[in-house]
Amino acid sequence: MSDRPTIRNRRKVVYDASDEAQVKKAEEIEKDRERDLSYIVKEPRGRRWLYELIFDACHVSRPSHTPSDTHSTAFNEGARAVGERVLEELRTRHFSAFIQMLEENHDPTE
Asked: What is the mean pLDDT of the chain?
């Protein structure tokens, strides 16, 4: 069995900052998340997958508004919020991979 934290216990919440064990566990979980993103962005296909997720599936950089349909607009905004979160993680943690992703996947004719 792996020592890797499961999805359920991967939150970085520390309930008692004076408890060194809680702080250490939160730091370990954060480092593990960092390794996850590093693993994805190290290869061109991982960067391509992220680009498609962020800009196609989550339609970041496009309007979310659907005329006369507030429910679809709200749904699109939810997807866009997820894309913005992933994009921000990538920009702040792996800026060079972010730039490389844009260079590899951006089509200036779109």
From this structure: 87
Residue-by-residue DSSP string for the chain: ---SPPSTT-----S-TT-HHHHHHHHHHHHHHHHHHHHHHTSHHHHHHHHIIIIIIS-TTS----TT-HHHHHHHHHHHHHHHHHHHHHHHH-HHHHHHHHHHH--TT-
Exposed, middle or buried: residue 105 (CB in 10 Å: 0-12, 13-18, 19+)? middle
Please tell me the pTM assigned to this model. Answer: 0.75
Q: How far apart are CA 1 and CA 66, in angstroms?
A: 47
* Amino acid occupying residue 83: G
